[in-house]
Amino acid sequence: MRPVVARKHPRIELVDGLELRGWRQDDAAPFLIAQRDPLVARYAGFLLADRADALQTVQRYAAAYADGDGVAWAVSAHGGDLLGSLRFALHDSGLGCGSVGYWLAPEVRGRGVASTALLLGTRFVFERLGWHRIELSHAVENERSCAVARRAGYRAEGVLRDGMRYPVDERWSDEHLHARLVTDPDPLG
Fold it and tell me: The pTM is what?
C-alpha cells in the first residue's frame, strides 16, 4: 500500500453543482439535524447523542485523511451546507482493506448523487490511497443502497446474517455485502 503524502483534504466535483469536501466544525449542527430524517436514522451505524458528540465526530472525520485512517467527505453545494456524507474507513493497512458508508439528505436523493460520489470516491481511494479492497454493506431491505452499490461497480458477495445492529431501534439486520477490488473494472471507464 502506498503511503499518504498529500495532507490537504481533497475536493471532488459531483453533479448539479454539488461537491465532496472536507468536514468543517460548522457541519456538526446540520449533521445532528440530518439524523432526524427517518431514512438516515433507520440505517445509521451510530446516532449522535448531542452537539458535543457531533462536533467530536466531525473533528474525527476531518482528521481521517491526514491521519491515514481513510477519507471522509461532506456532500455540499460548493462549500455550502451539509447535504450528505461519504466515508471510507481503513480496517487493515497491510491488506489495503476498508469499508465505505454514505447517507444523503432528502433534498438530494434520487438525482444520482450517491452513485456519482461513491464512484469518484472509490476511484480516489484506489488511485491515491492505494487500497486493494473496499467493502460496502447495507440492510437487505434497503433497495436504494443496493442500487447505488451496483451502479458504482460494487459486486454482491453474499448476506451477513445479523451483520448489523442498528441503534435507532436495536434491531438486528441481515446485511448485503458488496465489494470492489482495485482490479475490478471501473464503471466510469
Answer: 0.93
Fold of the domain built from segment(s) 12-181: Aminopeptidase (3.40.630)
CB 175 within 8 A of CB 164: yes
pLDDT tens by residue, 109-158: 999 999 999 999 999 999 999 999 999 999 999 999 999 999 999 999 99
Strand ordering across the sheet containing 12-13: 12-13, 19-21, 70-76, 82-92, 97-104, 133-139, 171-181, 155-166
Cα 134 to Cα 36, 104, 169, 178: the distances in Å are 28, 20, 27, 9
- Burial label for 118, CB within 10 Å (0-12, 13-18, 19+), is buried
Sorted by where each begins, the domain ranges of the chain are 12-181
Question: What tens digit of pLDDT does each residue of 162-176 get?
Answer: 999 999 999 999 999
